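Researcher: Let's do a round of design. I'm pasting the structure tokens now; please hold your answer until I've finished.
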């Protein structure tokens, strides 16, 4: 390799010319020069590694929380809409790991002389999901979930009267303390959405008190895992699916 070739590589891969890095990788690795020029299997392999299975960054996932309506609490002093707004926006940054409900096939068995033959009866998701958060110095994520559990406690014990809209009409039987959560998968440009999942009817199962207290032997950033009950989980890669439009409308209204 002569100095001209070295200089070209430095120019193509420098931070100031980082836009040319993909072109350099494509010309010299994906398309293949020299001994790889006629090696089509290796060209295909390199193309998958460099473009579709990038081991460095192959996309990003974000969580968008839709808090419960808390209509029953709006008539009492405990409800603070500004705090709901803060939590709703903070979730996008602070949520670092998401374990969705598991969609599973329920089966029954048909008796036969050779034994039971299982057959599918329905497909339904499991009833739990969890999100791990990084909390800020004010513990806003933890405090919000504390308030969330307090609201559930006040409603089930009768300290707060349920809203009348849940006693009749189209909202009859609704859970005033249940929210929803969108999980969105972007490509590495952060411009295009590849996957949307929506968990409906979620509310916290417990609080991670141990993780909040932390350990005195280290100063590492600690994450707080919170497990939620989940009513339903729906996922899609089809941009014409209704939850895709619901996500777009929700993001615009929250952050627009």
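Researcher: That's everything. Go ahead.
Model: Designed sequence:
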């Amino acid at each position: 390799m002569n100095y001209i070739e070295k200089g070209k590589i430095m120019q193509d891969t420098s931070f100031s010319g980082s836009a040319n890095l993909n072109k350099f990788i494509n010309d010299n690795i994906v398309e293949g020069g020299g001994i790889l020029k006629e090696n089509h299997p290796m060209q295909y392999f390199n193309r998958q590694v460099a473009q579709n299975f990038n081991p460095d960054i192959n996309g990003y996932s974000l969580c968008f929380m839709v808090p419960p309506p808390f209509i029953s609490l709006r008539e009492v002093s405990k409800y603070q809409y500004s705090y709901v707004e803060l939590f709703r926006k903070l979730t996008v940054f602070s949520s670092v790991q998401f374990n969705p409900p598991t969609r599973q096939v329920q089966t029954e068995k048909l008796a036969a002389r050779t034994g039971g033959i299982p057959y599918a009866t329905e497909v339904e998701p499991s009833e739990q999901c969890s999100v791990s958060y990084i909390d800020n110095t004010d513990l806003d994520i933890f405090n919000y979930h504390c308030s969330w559990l307090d609201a559930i406690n006040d409603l089930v014990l009768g300290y707060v009267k349920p809203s009348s809209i849940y006693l009749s009409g189209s909202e009859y039987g609704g859970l005033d303390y249940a929210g929803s959560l969108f999980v969105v998968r972007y490509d590495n440009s952060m411009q295009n959405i590849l996957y949307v999942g929506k968990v409906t009817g979620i509310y916290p199962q417990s609080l991670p008190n141990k993780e909040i207290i932390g350990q005195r032997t280290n100063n590492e950033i600690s994450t707080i895992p919170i497990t939620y009950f989940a009513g339903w989980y729906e996922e899609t890669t089809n941009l014409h699916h209704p939850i895709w439009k619901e996500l777009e409308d929700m993001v615009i209204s929250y952050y627009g």
